[in-house]
Design goal:
With 387 residues, this protein is of the alpha+beta class. The chain has a 5-stranded antiparallel sheet, with helices on both faces. Strands 7-8-6-9-10 form a 5-stranded mixed sheet. A hairpin with a 4-residue loop joins β1 and β2. The two termini are 45 Å apart.
Length: 387
């Protein structure tokens, strides 16, 4: 329960307050902290009787001369839940130090309580990160009970309706010295103000990511509330971030469904990255085509790619051609909007359409083939981001 760092903080702080030498020992009377470094690691003989009796004692010059490593003063038991775990020694005459004994004892208790809370918080954060890691991994049937038990120990019921929010952020200054961690800490504090239900699960992930397993209302068929909270996050932190992307997953009940919601939220954020959107929010219901593209049969994709895409892939203008096809589909086959998106004149676009048909036999007004190429390109782009 006591460590050297904590004991040194207690002894240094107490000594500054009262102007007398202070030391802290463990339950064996060994000095762990002192404002006199030479005493650390030595035996404080007076502590042995205090540990055995659980009572404060005063020791004058004569008493101190008979006790190893002891100076005139007083020694106070340090207890937790009725168990003596160490002592505090204060050097000085009884008249000078008696008034400080209770003060120092209470100060030490405050230090220990705060230290215990910090340790508990760190331990809880560690368990939450492990739980999120397990939910993000490919979940096998034999993992379900352990995940359920881990959540239960933390106070979370994963069978309640939830949806996952996944966020990535980079500080605006890009400074390696400042780093993302302080910004992530502020983000988590803000999220705690937005998601206040005890069942809302908030967790840091890495140094620049965060996730929320948000509890949905009982009639939680709509994710609009999560969109509103995501927009509040963007409004608050976008000015401080070079990148801030929020993905919202599907509604989920149960561990396997939560895994899918996590994957969906992560995918939505990747789509924002693919679209070169630095600040934004997308829900999985906004990206049906992207999700469909990722779940296409690899063998079917290989067959279609061989039939349609290979001649284009061999062209030195491959990227420009795929950009044209993407703009054509994303503008819903609107010729004027496609020319505008590509920053070219309509006559230039007419020429490009004609050349594509001449060189590759592809008529961009052929909906089936053009959409097939678009989905293949979506799939390729998303897999490259994932990799």
């Amino acid at each position: 329960m006591l460590d050297k760092e904590l004991c040194n903080r207690i002894s240094q702080s107490a000594s500054l307050i009262i102007g007398h030498h202070v030391l802290v020992t463990d339950k064996n009377g060994i000095v762990l902290g002192s404002n006199d470094p030479a005493r650390i690691g030595t035996l404080h003989g007076a502590s042995l009787d205090v540990i055995a009796s659980g009572q404060q004692i005063y020791h004058n010059q004569t008493d101190a001369s008979r006790l190893s490593g002891t100076k005139p003063g007083t020694t106070i038991p340090l207890s937790v839940n009725g168990e003596v775990i160490g002592t505090i020694g204060i050097t000085g005459s009884p008249e000078e130090i008696s008034k400080y004994a209770i003060l120092i004892q209470q100060l030490a208790q405050l230090f220990m309580d705060f230290h215990a809370q910090q340790q508990s918080s760190v331990h809880r954060d560690y368990k939450k990160r492990n739980l999120l890691h397990d939910l993000a991994a490919d979940i096998q049937d034999d993992m379900l009970e352990n995940i359920h038990n881990s959540a239960y120990e933390l106070g979370y019921d994963l069978e309640l309706p939830r949806a996952v929010l996944w966020m990535e952020l980079e500080p605006a200054d890009g400074s390696a010295r400042a780093g993302p961690a302080p910004l992530q800490t502020k983000l988590l504090a803000f999220l705690a103000e937005q998601f206040v239900h005890p069942q809302d699960f908030l967790c840091a992930q890495g140094d620049s990511e965060a996730a929320v397993l948000a509890l949905l209302p009982e009639n939680g068929s709509s994710l609009e509330g999560l969109r509103q909270k995501s927009r509040a996050v963007l409004d608050r932190f976008a000015p401080e971030c070079r990148v801030l992307r929020v993905g919202i997953g599907s509604q989920a009940e149960g561990i396997q469904a939560l895994h899918t919601s996590y994957e969906d939220a992560h995918l939505a954020a990747r789509v924002l990255q693919m679209r070169r959107t630095a600040h934004g929010c997308l829900a999985v219901n906004d990206i049906f085509l992207e999700k469909l593209a990722l779940n296409l049969s690899p063998s079917a994709c290989d067959h279609i790619s061989s039939a349609l895409l290979r001649p284009i892939q061999q062209s030195k203008d491959h990227e420009l051609l795929m950009q044209l096809i993407s703009c054509w589909c994303q503008t819903r086959f609107n010729f004027s909007k496609t020319a505008e998106a590509l920053h070219v004149h309509k006559s230039t676009l007419v020429y490009r359409f004609r050349r594509i048909e001449e060189l590759y036999g592809l008529d961009l007004y052929d909906f089936d083939k053009t959409m097939a190429l678009y989905l293949l390109n979506l799939r390729r782009s998303l897999l490259e981001l994932k990799g």
